[in-house]
Design brief:
The protein has a single domain (17-205), classed as Alpha-ketoglutarate-dependent dioxygenase AlkB-like (Jelly Rolls, Sandwich). 15% of the residues lie in helices and 37% in strands. It has helices at residues 36-49, 94-107, 181-184, and strands spanning 17-22, 25-30, 56-59, 62-65, 69-74, 80-82, 85-87, 113-119, 126-129, 142-148, 151-157, 164-169, 174-178, 185-189, 199-205. The strands form four sheets. Strands 1-2-13-10-15-8-5 form a seven-stranded antiparallel β-sheet. A four-stranded antiparallel β-sheet has the order 9-14-11-12. Strands 3-4 form a two-stranded antiparallel ribbon. The longest helix has 14 residues, at 36-49. It is globular, with a radius of gyration of 16 Å. It starts with 16 loop residues before the first strand and ends in a 10-residue tail after the last strand. The protein binds 2-oxoglutaric acid.
Length: 215
């Protein structure tokens, strides 16, 4: 895709789209869904405009800060409940709405909510998990956009942990995860050993039944 204006959308060149068909699930990897310049502009804009928050997690009765900043966006009523706390969605900004619509047109799937993650440096991470909260329904489609530093996205099969995959996600890359992937596979962004610049990740979701999920 090549565009100077953030809001002009072209086609992602076919050679940069990879369909990874796994035994139990499917990933579409559109490299450089946004070109380098556009991705850089989007990164700066979102770093400024998103109301990033430090959330905590309770481990063995102790509150610990999660190793990244987050924000929750969505259509009215798309609440997210976790650790006994209900997050009301922040309304879509123009920037996020435009990105959402461009991804929806590309993937031919509608989303109504978004979890935004900011990995500040190499120490920030997300551990093994699946996006399989009940309110997302069976076989959810999750679209995940990377902006900023390159990070490794690892996948492993729940029942066959020797089945693994590592994708080096660059700024502007879009992953669309679908089929039964969230039932059979876990994913994570591990910490890095080397100094790493910040990265924003946007995961667009479609909540079918609001208010029952866990982060
Ligand atoms: O940062 C990423 O690429 C993954 C984020 C993620 O796994 C999530 O938000 O559920």
């Amino acid at each position: 895709m090549s565009q100077n204006d953030l809001f002009i959308f072209g086609d992602v060149p076919l050679q940069s789209v990879e369909l990874i068909e796994l035994e139990d699930g499917e990933i579409l990897w559109a490299r450089r869904f946004y070109d380098e310049d556009t991705a850089r502009q989007l990164y700066s804009r979102l770093q400024e405009e998103i109301p990033w928050r430090q959330d905590n997690i309770r481990i063995a009765g102790k509150e610990m800060p999660i190793p990244r900043l987050q924000a929750w966006f969505g259509d009215p009523g798309m609440n997210y409940t976790y650790s006994g706390m209900t997050l009301e969605p922040t309304p879509w900004s123009d920037t996020l709405l435009t990105i959402k619509e461009q991804i929806e047109d590309y993937g031919d799937h509608r989303f109504n909510s978004l979890l935004a993650n900011l990995y500040r440096d190499e120490q920030d991470s997300v551990g093994w998990h699946a996006d399989n909260e009940p309110e997302l329904g069976a076989n959810p489609v999750i679209a995940s956009l990377s902006l900023g530093a390159e990070r490794t996205f690892q996948l492993k099969h729940r029942k066959h942990p020797e089945r693994k995959l590592a994708l080096e996600l660059a700024s502007g890359d879009l992953l669309i995860m679908k089929g039964s992937l969230q039932h059979f596979w876990l994913h994570q962004i591990p910490k890095n050993r080397h100094p790493t610049e910040p990265r924003i990740n946007l995961t667009f979701r479609r909540i079918i039944e609001a208010g029952t999920g866990k982060l």
